Amino acid sequence: MKSTFFQGDDEDQLIVAQIISGQKELFRLLIKRYERPVYGMGISFLRNAEDASDFTQEVFLKVFRNLSRFEGRSRFSTWLYKIAYNTAMNSIKRKKDYHSLVEDEIEGGNDTPEGNLLKGLAREAVLEAVTELPERFRICMDLYFFYDRSYNEIEAITGYPVNTIKSHVFRAKKILRERLEDYMGFTPGGSE
After folding, report:
1. Which of 20, 111, 131, 170 has the fewest Cβ atoms surrounding its Cβ within 10 A?
2. Which residues contact 188 (CB under 8 A, 6 or more apart)?
């Protein structure tokens, strides 16, 4: 079951209130906490470090400028990821290119040449299957599995209805399972 409470939520709310009341230097704490996931989202959407770095700066600039609009009805991280998502979507509308974080999570490497070969082949199969998913499935899957967002938070970030998000995540998992079962020589519905 997904957690609906993040340990830093109360702290984030307090920091935001202090920044709004004039302690602007505390914004660096929010940057420190969220810079890495925002940069990761930038890499997913923009596919290169320089653009992701620019994207990260742009997102935090937007967050800082709009901090007084944060009403606290959602987690601060959800609000920030919505800004990041919208910024990324505007950027990729020009590029039409989304890169899933699955690619970054799959690790190669083993002590034996055979192990390295098998992991490399498995990695290629997973990456190929992921890149063939429709973009909306990949985005929902990334937010759910890699950013640990709940369905309601993904709705707030993407604007997709919760049932659509559930369907996208379910269908993405089903498609990946079927493609990987075919690749590995398993038959769907067979014993694993």
Report:
1. 111
2. 177, 178, 181, 182
| Sign of the torsion formed by the C-alpha atoms of 18, 23, 29 and 35 | positive
CA atoms of 58 and 76, how far apart (whole Å): 17
- Where is the domain boundary, 76, 99, 122? 99
Q: Is residue 104 part of a domain?
A: no
Q: CA-to-CA distance for 189 and 192, rounded, in angstroms?
A: 9
For 21-74, write each residue's pLDDT tens digit.
999 999 999 999 999 999 988 888 887 888 889 999 999 999 999 999 998 888
Integer Rg of the chain from CA: 19
Those residues whose C-beta lies under 8 Å from the C-beta of residue 86, and which sit 6 or more positions away, are none
